[in-house]
Amino acid sequence: MGRPVIGITAYVERASWGRWVDVPGALVPHRYVRQVEEAGAIAVVIPPRLDADDSTARDLLERLDGVVLAGGVDVAPELYADERHPSVQASRPDRDTTEIAIARMSAELDLPVLGICRGMQVMAVEAGGLLEQHVPDRVGHDEHSPAPTVYGSHPVHTVAGTRVAEILGEEVDVPSYHHQSVLTHPGYVASAWAPDGTLEAMEVPEARFRLAVQWHPEVGSDPRLFEALIAAATPTRSRWSRPSRG
């Protein structure tokens, strides 16, 4: 059957290379690509589109074996009916629209998904959950995001009996870069916590692989979450044999 194909969500950003300056490009940090490839899969970049809907997402996902919902800017608070905190970053409607649809349709298709940081928040919002818009207001420190472009490091404690605990063990130190977190997560089980009470992982136990973490495993040296995603995508890869929708 060959290697599984894993889509990674991305930005459209203005970028420069060679003599080309300030040109719109579909971009994702290469660390995501490297982790997916080193885990044994083929990585493809999913550019966002403002007109994405469930049909578009389904057409995409039926051609993939799994998805990484990547990190990025804050999810628009309007999507979970909350007033915007002063710290919230400028919204990216193209990513919000595309990734909410991917989160919804991947659940319907039971396609393996790993949500990372923003990706975890997208999955919670799509399910009807709420976000904590500025974690330092509650915890009183910046450990989760010490400074711009600087990753923090802290332990997380997994919940016994969850898939996250099965993959990572009872405790693990993680690279962290977020100022928001998930408050409520309908349909998901909490599977890891930071010492300050911040939710660090959630999952759907009955799904083939539907798991999200608040930290950034792509920047660390621990490949186990990516390996678990690829393992879940590999045995049941069947995009050429999925029945037609008629």
Automatic annotation (TrEMBL):
<protein>
    <submittedName>
        <fullName>Putative glutamine amidotransferase</fullName>
    </submittedName>
</protein>
<dbReference type="Pfam" id="PF07722">
    <property type="entry name" value="Peptidase_C26"/>
</dbReference>
<dbReference type="GO" id="GO:0016740">
    <property type="term" value="F:transferase activity"/>
</dbReference>
<keyword id="KW-0315">Glutamine amidotransferase</keyword>
<dbReference type="GO" id="GO:0005829">
    <property type="term" value="C:cytosol"/>
</dbReference>
<dbReference type="GO" id="GO:0033969">
    <property type="term" value="F:gamma-glutamyl-gamma-aminobutyrate hydrolase activity"/>
</dbReference>
<dbReference type="InterPro" id="IPR011697">
    <property type="entry name" value="Peptidase_C26"/>
</dbReference>
<keyword id="KW-0808">Transferase</keyword>
<dbReference type="InterPro" id="IPR029062">
    <property type="entry name" value="Class_I_gatase-like"/>
</dbReference>
<dbReference type="InterPro" id="IPR044668">
    <property type="entry name" value="PuuD-like"/>
</dbReference>
<dbReference type="GO" id="GO:0006598">
    <property type="term" value="P:polyamine catabolic process"/>
</dbReference>
